[in-house]
Amino acid sequence: MTKLSLENIEFIKILATSDATILQAGMNDATRRKLDAEIGTILREYYRENTMGAATEWTQKLELVGIDEDAGKAAIACARRLGIDIS
Prior knowledge:
By secondary structure, this protein is an all-alpha fold. The protein has one domain. It has 5 helices and no strands. α1 crosses α5.
């Protein structure tokens, strides 16, 4: 299971508040791998919990670090625009 590290928290916050076009322009292979592997996993689980009722507890974990529902949705939308499969 992916852990919610400080780096992952910051990455999700950046996704929630940034323009995907700008992020795409500055993204390298290492960033894409991290986004797909770690952040993508967290956001997929968060999405499953909020749409299908899966018991992943990511909603609670993200809220504890200051990422509310709106920021979570914005991060998912940005990740999708960057080509990460969330659903």
